[in-house]
């Protein structure tokens, strides 16, 4: 195991390997920036800005202010959540190539959001009660100053209705943030859910 693999716990793809998002249907348009070097110190201004971006985003998602959330995404966003599979330790992969719970660009994400405003959004009418818990944030520089790679862990609590049991989704995320004239925006998100079989009834919400 290389130092990079050990630093990442062996769970996320190496920068010099084919990342799952590179094999996605919509991944051909995705930005290809990768991390450079060790994690930034927690008192680095770039880390603090990235951390604030994630927390502000979580509040938007909790409040289901999805139109405002779309404004925090770049036009070439790739939003990807591969299907996890259980494999032997030496297999070298733990996602299923070509299969994803989410494989989205800006247009498809905007169509999902637009559907919430229609009378056909039965999965979110009445809306869920959501809480996105974000932790374990680490930030990495890229080969240019306009991008950052940000790792985080997320626990989503979702409750809907009065009788159904609440659901939890645990995942790790690898984000690419881009500095624009409007501040930092999300240019790529890869979500590594911690279950191979999701127990949530549907994925009509965002992680």
How does this structure look, described?
Helix content is 19%, strand content 35%. It is built from 4 helices and 6 strands. It has helices spanning 3-7, 45-62, 66-70, 106-116; strands at residues 73-84, 95-104, 129-141, 147-159, 167-180, 183-193. β4 (147-159) and β5 (167-180) form a beta hairpin. Mean pLDDT is 82; it is low at 1-17. It has a 6-stranded mixed beta sheet with strand order 2-1-6-5-4-3. It has 207 residues and is of the alpha+beta class. InterPro entries: NTF2-like_dom_sf, Rng_hydr_dOase-bsu. One of its GO terms (biological process) is 3-phenylpropionate catabolic process. GO terms for molecular function: dioxygenase activity. It holds the Pfam family Ring_hydroxyl_B.
List keywords for this structure.
35% strand; 207 residues; dioxygenase; alpha+beta; Nuclear Transport Factor 2, Chain: A; six-stranded mixed sheet; disordered N terminus
Task: Summarize this structure briefly.
By secondary structure, the chain is of the alpha+beta class. The protein has 4 helices and 6 strands. The chain has a single domain, classed as Roll (Nuclear Transport Factor 2, Chain: A), CATH 3.10.450.50.
Q: What secondary-structure arrangement, pairings included, does this model have?
A:
Blueprint: H1 3-7, H2 45-62, H3 66-70, E1 73-84, E2 95-104, H4 106-116, E3 129-141, E4 147-159, E5 167-180, E6 183-193
Parallel strand pairs: 1-6
Antiparallel strand pairs: 1-2, 3-4, 4-5, 5-6
């Amino acid at each position: 195991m290389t130092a990079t693999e050990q630093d990442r716990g062996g769970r996320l793809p190496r920068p010099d390997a084919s990342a799952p998002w590179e094999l996605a249907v919509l991944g051909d348009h995705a930005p290809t920036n990768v991390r450079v070097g060790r994690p930034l110190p927690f008192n680095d201004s770039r880390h603090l800005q990235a951390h604030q971006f994630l927390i502000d985003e979580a509040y938007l998602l909790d409040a289901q202010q999805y139109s405002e959330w779309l404004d925090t995404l770049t036009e070439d966003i790739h939003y990807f959540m591969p299907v996890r599979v259980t494999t032997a330790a030496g297999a070298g992969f733990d996602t299923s190539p070509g299969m994803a719970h989410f494989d989205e660009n800006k247009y498809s994400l905007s169509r999902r959001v637009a559907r919430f405003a229609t009378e056909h959004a039965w999965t979110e009418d009445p809306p869920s009660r959501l809480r996105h818990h974000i932790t374990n944030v680490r930030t990495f520089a890229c080969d240019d100053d306009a991008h950052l790679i940000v790792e985080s862990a997320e626990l989503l609590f979702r409750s809907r209705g009065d009788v159904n049991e609440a659901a939890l989704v645990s995942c790790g995320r690898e984000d690419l943030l881009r500095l624009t004239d409007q501040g930092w925006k999300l240019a790529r998100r890869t979500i590594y859910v911690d279950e191979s079989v999701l127990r949530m009834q549907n994925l009509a919400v965002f992680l």
